[in-house]
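Q: Protein A?
A:
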Amino acid sequence: MESLLKDIRYGIRGLLKRPGFTAVAVITLGLGIGVNTAIFSVINAVLLRPLPYQDPARLITFRSNQSAPDLADVEAQSQTFSQFGGLVAQPLDYTAGGEPVQFQIGQVTGGFFATLGVRPERGRFITPEDDKTGSPYVVVLSHALWSKQFNGDEQIVGKTIPLSGNVYTIIGVMPAGFDSPRENTEAWTPVHVSNPVAANFRGVHFLRTYGRLASGVSIEQARAEMQVIDKTLAAQYPADNKNRTTALIPLHERVVGQSRQSLLVLFAAVSLVLLIACANFANLLLARAAEREREFVIRAALGARRWRLIRQLLTESVLVSLVGGAIAVVLAIWGTSLLVALKPENLPRLEEIGVDGRVLLFTFGISLLTGLIFGLLPAWTASRGGVNEALKEGGRSATAGGTRQRLRSSFVIVELAIALILLVGAGLLIKTFWKLRSVEPGFNPAHLLTMRVELPEARYKEVDKQTRFRTQALAAINSLPGVRAAMVSELPLSGASLDHDFLIDGRPPIAQGDEPSLETRSVLSDYFHVMQIPVLRGRDFGPQDYADKAPLVGIANAAMVRQYFQNEDPLGKRVRWARDPEIHWMTIVGVVGDVKHFGLDLPEQPGLYSPYTQAAPWKRWMRLVARTQSDPAGMAQAVKEQIWKVDSQLPITKVETMNELAAESFAARRFNMLLLAIFAGLALALAAVGIYGVMSYAVTQRTQEIGIRMALGARASDVLKLIISNGMSLILIGVVIGLAGAFGLTRLLTSLLFGVTPTDTLTFVVVSAVLIFVALLACYIPARRATKVDPLVALRYE
């Protein structure tokens, strides 16, 4: 131990005497380890940390939603699950705190909280007794809502609050660490009380379902049981459950979603950045060892064994790597804050991301391993020289020098190859992003303002009251100078959807449960004109279609025509909803162009537009769209005030421009592209520093040779060509290896790409050219310095 402490003290003194070397090495490793720590902190929070529920490994979720009656039947028939719970998100209005707002409510079945195995901090949670149609209105608050909206009232349990026209009694407050499986949920109510119509309708599959496996039961056993239950429900209720299958997946897998692959790709990318940083670190150690060769020889001559010298060098490399790791922690704290600020749409558990004990342990481990592994080879090489050879010619050893130079060149080749792989990946994602930005959404998003309004059932139960509000609100908004407004139930690019099984008049009969499905959207006013969606055939809706008791009409999108009326004229064809208790035929009077409804990278589904006046009374939500002549964001307050003139108790949410909504639709791809581009840029910079260091070292080693050449008549251009040609050989080898690696590894990016193949030729060519240019520039600087060598000085070198 005493000997180790002496090594540490000696190493610290040596590092302090060479502040330039120490600073470069620490910064290089700090950057490499820092980006790894930042990404690992995200992976730790999202992928590794268990969900905050009791025994989360036994929690299972259904991939497809269930209806409340189906869930009750599943619970009654299942032997492999001990508990079941269902959840659907539904905003409710709160109007007792000044400006009306909406709470994001989780409407849950009675077994929801027991299934998750959580308990409230205050009061109690919702039980099966609460979740019965006609039971009292009760609500459980999240800790965040209780603190923010109700100032942490210690006596909150038992008090009442108004939500969408009904008075709810607060029965509990959840603890601060509780996160609902459905993110951003602020409170919970019994679904059979707050949404009795949907909860008692078997055909409405709207509940995200969770189950807790019974003790000793595997997920394979539960899946086998669910296949039997699916067949039973399909036989009993073919109209609603025919061809429905229940896929069971672990809850953690559902929460993580598709973020796993993108996070692993990013972690692989930063690992490659770390490899480049480590190669630079090893090169620095090799250069440092070359400078200290006489010191090692003298120590060996005085009796120091080879292992003693290696241990001293390893101690110094570990000291540097640990200091780099400390800087990495600071960079990671800043980096994780930046990642959270970017708020990638596809990244769950954002609030849990941070530097904790596991992240610190990861940083310490990777720092220690970096110092040991990448310090060992330089230390081993530095300790190889013989005493006699090293003392000759002023301490230079041609054999050791050649070995070190080959090692340094090998490290640079690896750096260039890795940098090329990262640059190609970043180039593919950048091209994907550019392709997405050029996709036509099917409408004109410029100068469009959007906002969401939902009418409370307590005050707007009848269609005529809903219609009166909508027409008055639109009239008020359209009175604003330069504004033209309309309404739609599901907004383009929002991803919101509502589908119905339907039948086409005159087609052969279809068995119950086998009917095709159709996206349905309700509109009011001159919607297609406001959105600038082209009417391809037939006509738009007119005043006669919005009149009371007008004939039912619809306008199909092009996708519906392609799929169901490929060789027919759709105009005049009639369709109806398969589940309506009464037969109501709807006549198609027009065809409009497709819009990108679910994302710019996804195709439009068959859909049918119909007037809001002909919608069911439960369709009380709407997305208002207003086209303005000026900046749409600047008109938001004026539009909201016009709505409040009609009803001052309505919350207005999701106020954003259509351009902002379009940007959100590819936010996840932008996040991946941005990070990979940053990592690739860092890799390119480190690789350039690496080849600069190698060429600079080579010039220093060949100073005498260069002086002799110049004394014999070599011109500056000849020397320049000599040095650059040596560097070019390294660059070309690195590029060839990198291209081979990129051809294989970029296939892992396939799911992250759009409109681009993983082997896109243009990307490979451009990226290779950029890397070669930057690397040549890094070679040119030391080569240019070589041309300035004075032959007289060089001949006296060493």
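Q: Protein B?
A:
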Amino acid sequence: MGDGGPTDAGTVGDAAIGVPLPRTPTQLTSWRFIASNSLTGAEAPTFDDGAWQSVTVPHTFEGRGVPFVTYSHAWYRTHFHLDASTAGGRVYVQFEGAGTIADVYVNGQQLGEHRGLYTAFTLDASPAAVAGDNVLAVRIDNTDASSGDTLPATPVARNYFEPYGGIYRKAWLLAVDPIHVAPTDLGSSGVYLTPKVPESGGNGTLEARTIVRNTSAATRAVHVTHLVNDAANTTVATLATDVMVGAGATVTSDATGTVPSPHPWAPGNPYLYSVVTRLSVDGVVRDSMTEPIGFRTFRLTTTDFFVNGVSTPLRGVAKHQESEDHFAAMTDDELRADWGAMQAVGFDFVRLVHYPHARLEYDLADQLGMVVWTENGYVTPNAWTQTADTETREWVRQNYNHPSIAFWDVGNESVSANDATTVDAMERFAKAVHEEDSTRLVTYANSNSNIPFSDPALDFMGQNLYEGLTQNNPWGFENDAAAFHYVSENGSRAEVTQHSDYATAVSSRVANVFEPEEFIQPTVEASAETVFRTRSGQVPLFAWWAFRDFQLYGRIDGICNNGLYTWDGVHPKDHAFLFESFLLKTPVVHILGATYFVRRGAANNGIKVYSNAAKLDLAIDGTDMGTLTAGSYTQPNGRTVDETFYWPVTLFQGPNYVHVDDGAGHGDDIFVVFAGTGGQAPPMLTQTPIVSQVTSSNAANPAYFIDRPIAPDFPVYYDLDGTADNSFAALPAQLAGAAQVGTLRLSKTQNLTDLSLTIATSAAKGADVFILTTDDGSSLSMWTGVGFADSGVTGSWRDTAMDLVPVKLLQTHVAGGASVTVPGTTRDYVVLVKATP
């Protein structure tokens, strides 16, 4: 790593360099933006960008819509100020991710071009920068035709995920002293730290390599020190070395030292040290930077994974860097929420697919103690290119210091064993990684639809197994997982706005059209039972696909619904709780099917629960339905699945208040309406709903009061058949605690109805009745004319295509015992009721 020795010798001590200039990173967040395929000349400082859009970086100009956006090019411009006191120092611009191709200019002068969407890059802005105001301009090219040499090549990548264009990760201005750690070594920090410790413990060693740059006018004798500080910020070891750095030169400094009995980093105890690297000249510190490290050993066998010699079989999940609100330009809060949610499930392992992720994600893995599998982006069957090789080396150098990283993955489903071109590319990427880092394992994720193969360039090969999805044989996973050992992907599909009875979930599923949430359950149950019970000693590595839904054209509503969580990251799907039940020691009790809130199938479809309890009792409408003990559940094929409870009880006709508990204070509740035939005669309800009666004028569209608060991602309508995927999004404060009147989708002409509801006399202060409707700009006079007022509250929800669309909220007050009628119209809307406080 680095450029070698001096290139311009000078005399030590010549040309004084003045007072040290502190390392000063400044995040560049405020930019002007325009999407244009033809605009040129916007790099000129005098270019007028006054009509451009103001945006905050991170930012992407691709979102929801057609697969290939109208605009494939864009410009970004911002200004930065340099104080005259920084003269003599160095100024860099840094981008954590932009692309796919970024041409960067300062004051009209091109600093360089970076090719590749997912790796960071740093450019020296000093030759173009001036004291005072400076204009930074970036032209983005995200065309498929331009990206053929990059990782990934975007035309084929779109079959896996959306390669969003823009400056979608953070951008920085970095000012440093003339003597500094160079940030230009393929976009890395410039400090490479290799902690080593025997698996059995004892003293550790630290190897530190530093890229030192001298932009002053004379050769400098630079003293490089590395202070190793423990978690209490006490220095426990010091490494030091001296290097001569010529004027304008960049050299590499290497140092090694002993760290006495370091505290190990491990899942559950992610102990981190910090290494402060300082560059001094004549006893004066010219630059200082800090990098965290962790002392740990990893070892993988066909039966186990060991961290510091301790058996730690990896149980985890794969995740993309994408959210519904910001797409690839995720906020720090969104990323932290993702990692917090993954840890809350109990995972100790995360596969970061299918490209290098933001540095914050690796930082969070370090801090939370989660082992990481990271990937270079080779997901398309392309030949090796120099650009792709450079990106692979950038990826390794930029993430070298993270103790959480155990595996470098040089491809996913991109290689055919019979295709010499793709095998050659994968092997060359593996060779590059081994050259950059000899301390970690190099792998590749193969598809079970490909011919199984191995390759000596790899340390091991992962296998993506989808027997439950592609072969409709969930238990086929058991033998395959035991044979391949390293399960890099496994999963199925589930749409929370689509439901069916358990008995018909598999037979009624239509790929990419109707994929009820119940369809995924046989697969997740077989997989979990395999990796946690029957073959746990033969599967040392397992990753579920995927953490949250993400955008993928060709899937239902353009969303890949394989996630444990919905696309917004808010709602855990039912099968997430099976993993919690197997992984967590804290009590887990979760009733499945809360979003299957009006059931029109078999009356004895029953109640299913995922839980780690020893026993559970079920009650419906206060009626005891029996107690089940752990281990009593078997799938229809006779296979036992632990942590699963199922009562094939007959529901009551109409409302069902469902409660389960473990007898120790842990339980769960859902409310469902059974609207089919053959239900039990309803008992006398002990609950008093705020709506005592609700009727529909259309017999083909019965209305039901759903006596539970609405929640984000819950379906708006009870069609639940793929023709009404409307769902609630973030809810305005006024609707907290509100319950819905359940109907079929009201924008369907055949479902037109007037709704009448009566507020219970027990509601002392009455109730607020709301109409939440898509705001398409059309008149709402049919409701304002009968007493509903525009509340002024706006927001969004999802239409049936799962696009976030604007909504308006109307409301009226109804006294206890009084009734209100909501005239029908053919549009998307829902009636909600909330007790007046």
